[in-house]
């Protein structure tokens, strides 16, 4: 796949241009497939009043939870937030605005944003507080609500392998929200475990084409397990 070199050599270069008040779309599900080093860089930068769009907000002390600790997030658009005590505290105390979104709807909002589709109708959420203030139309006798697409100033993504042109592969369940999120950023930054030369990846195995990727960096990852379940033998 033809393209040009997307590799940057520092996390400061990877997140250059991120400013207060911007919207950041983050891939990941729980702690699986999260761009953990890019999040650390955002924390280091100290930017504030961010809107973060992500399935969840990490856990206390790791992932997006780091940005909560420094009160860098003004608003979260998420589908699940139950693993983070600080999130609950900031929400109850009015320090954090939260827009809860059904999980499938959140994924489709990202996909639509990347596809240039401004809005779509879905039955999910009709008759619940999710639908309040949203347009309702009926199709084949069933009511649907209008949901608007999401675009971010930045999208931060965790991949497995990529070539220098930014063609990305994800590993197993670490795909989760990453492919949709990668399409929906004005600037999409991907961190991966391994960067290879163009032509080394099987084109049929590429999940995110390099056309969507603006910056690429190789990182070292902790890969924490969110909940470990063991049994005695």
TrEMBL record:
<dbReference type="InterPro" id="IPR004163">
    <property type="entry name" value="CoA_transf_BS"/>
</dbReference>
<keyword id="KW-0808">Transferase</keyword>
<dbReference type="InterPro" id="IPR012792">
    <property type="entry name" value="3-oxoacid_CoA-transf_A"/>
</dbReference>
<comment type="pathway">
    <text>Aromatic compound metabolism; beta-ketoadipate pathway; acetyl-CoA and succinyl-CoA from 3-oxoadipate: step 1/2.</text>
</comment>
<dbReference type="GO" id="GO:0047569">
    <property type="term" value="F:3-oxoadipate CoA-transferase activity"/>
</dbReference>
<comment type="similarity">
    <text>Belongs to the 3-oxoacid CoA-transferase subunit A family.</text>
</comment>
<protein>
    <recommendedName>
        <fullName>3-oxoadipate CoA-transferase</fullName>
        <ecNumber>2.8.3.6</ecNumber>
    </recommendedName>
</protein>
<dbReference type="InterPro" id="IPR037171">
    <property type="entry name" value="NagB/RpiA_transferase-like"/>
</dbReference>
<dbReference type="InterPro" id="IPR004165">
    <property type="entry name" value="CoA_trans_fam_I"/>
</dbReference>
<dbReference type="Pfam" id="PF01144">
    <property type="entry name" value="CoA_trans"/>
</dbReference>
<dbReference type="GO" id="GO:0042952">
    <property type="term" value="P:beta-ketoadipate pathway"/>
</dbReference>
